[in-house]
Amino acid sequence: MILNSKSLFSTFGLLIIALTVLGVTYAHWSDTVTIEGTVHMGELIVGILNDSLTYYETTNGVPEEDFTPSKPWVANATITLSDFETSTHHTPPQTVAKKLTMLFENAYPQWDVHIEFILKNAGTIPAVLVNTTFSGFDETDGEDLSFRVDIEVYNDTIGAWIIEGALVDPAGEVMNVRIVAYVPEDWQLEPCHEYPVVVDIDFKQTAEECHTYTFSLVLDFVQWNKA
Amino acid sequence: MNMNARKSGILSLLLIMVLSVIGVTYAHWSDRVTIQGTAEMGSLTLAFDWVEPPHSIEYYWNNSQIYEGEWLGKNVGNCSSWYEDEITDVHTGKKGYKRLVIVVDNAYPQYLVRTTFKLHNIGTIPLSLVGFNITGEKRNATGHLIYRLLWYDPDGDYIGDLYEDVNGNGVVDIGIDIPVIWLEVTNQLPYQIDPCRTHKCEIDLEFYQEAEECHTYKIYVEVVAVQWNKA
């Protein structure tokens, strides 16, 4: 019994030594290559550049305050930016608004509003406009508004899309709208680039008194290679 | 049975995970800009004043002067005026009237009636008074239409005559058509009235010798106003 245990121990000892030797030998004849990866993902942010919004009002092309007697109090436009987002990749960081809200109070025919802002790709990935969705409603009559496009043309000379049309309801035209967007023809917005947009709104004689019209235009962008 | 249920459960879970990953990826790599607008339209409403009623006064001529009342203090003719057709501006809730009625009874030549009235802008947009559409008709005692009346005011100052359209051609033909009533309306045109403001006006009528006995002359004066930037 004692002999058996002794020889068993000896066998284990030998085996361990042999394995160790083999192991060291194996280690000496192997090598390692390491692939280490770090991915800095890009950022897709399109919006209206903070502080780029300007607007002014006119009546028959003249500001209300320039009439004699002046009447700057008749109609009023309040246009604001909201839903701000700041890019983390842009240097320096760039804040853009995701929403532009317009409120026109006491509007009347031939009163016009002229709006300018800068559309900016504040991210690092080119973005492409893939969809626009318009919706509008005559809150007073409970009727839908539609946007009738009369002209939609790209002007190579000025490098801009020119879109002219009107918001219409069953009673007729509510307002004429002219949009000049200084963007590439394919609507691909490059990172860090700024694209001025001019919007002119002109209320029509067929707009109804005391009515409230609401409308929205949604612009959907996707990464350039998914358009 | 248990094995099958487990298998399909695992498959569903896998599918949900794959879809979520795809969904998240798509959502993260698209962006949206919204332009939202609200336009609240104003109102343009001209009315006769709700508070102050119209007032008609009779006059007579004497030595190229006019005096209140009638010749020698008699009470022959009568005049009265009032407003009708009440309206409320839905925007401001202010009230007014759309019609001024002037009635002259037992009129006779050189009987002169002056009526003052007040216009009120009960809307929210300034308006401009730009003119008056003046029409009328002559009816006999049974109410039968005899002639239409035509407004004759070559210089457009709203001081003119109403003619009986004898030949019925719709145009005043001097020498054929007959002048029967002299009419003058306040004529500072265009005249702007701001919202909430009023403007006092006057309309004067005087009857000529040619006005026919026992007939009724109906005169319609439409006050035309437009939004202030269209005058």
Structure description:
The complex is a heterodimer of chains A (227) and B (231). Chain A is mainly beta and 227 residues long. Chain A has one helix at 2-28; strands at 46-49, 54-59, 76-86, 95-107, 111-121, 127-138, 143-155, 160-169, 172-181, 188-189, 194-203, 212-223. Chain A is built from one helix and twelve strands, in the order αββββββββββββ. In chain A, strands 1, 2, 3, 4, 5, 6, 7, 8, 9, 10, 11 and 12 form a twelve-stranded antiparallel β-sheet that branches. The longest helix of chain A is centred in the N-terminal third of the chain and has 27 residues, at 2-28. Chain A starts with a helix and ends with a strand. The model of chain A has no long low-confidence stretch (mean pLDDT 90). By secondary structure, chain B is mainly beta. Chain B has one domain. In chain B, strands 2, 3, 4, 5, 6, 7, 8, 9, 10, 11, 12, 13 and 14 form a 13-stranded antiparallel β-sheet that branches. The termini of chain B are far apart. β12 (212-223) of chain A pairs antiparallel with β1 of chain B.
Chains forming the largest contact: A-B, 52 and 31 residues
List the secondary-structure elements of chain A in sequence, H or E: HEEEEEEEEEEEE
Give the end-to-end Cα distance of chain A, rounded to a whole number of Å.
Answer: 82 Å
Specify the biggest β-sheet of chain A: 12 strands, antiparallel
Strand elements of chain A, count: 12
With helices defined by DSSP (H or I, 4 residues minimum), what is the helix count of chain A?
A: 1
The percent of residues in helical segments of chain B reads 10-25%
Mean pLDDT score of chain B: 88
- Assembly level: heterodimer
Number of domains of chain B: 1
Main beta sheet of chain B:
13 strands, antiparallel
Descriptive labels:
heterodimer; A: 227 residues; 1 helix; B: mainly beta; 13-stranded antiparallel sheet; elongated
Short description:
The complex is a heterodimer of chains A (about 230) and B (about 230). Chain A is mainly beta and about 230 residues long. Chain A has one helix at about 1-30, and strands spanning about 45-50, 55-60, 75-85, 95-105, 110-120, 125-140, 145-155, 160-170, 170-180, 190, 195-205, 210-225.
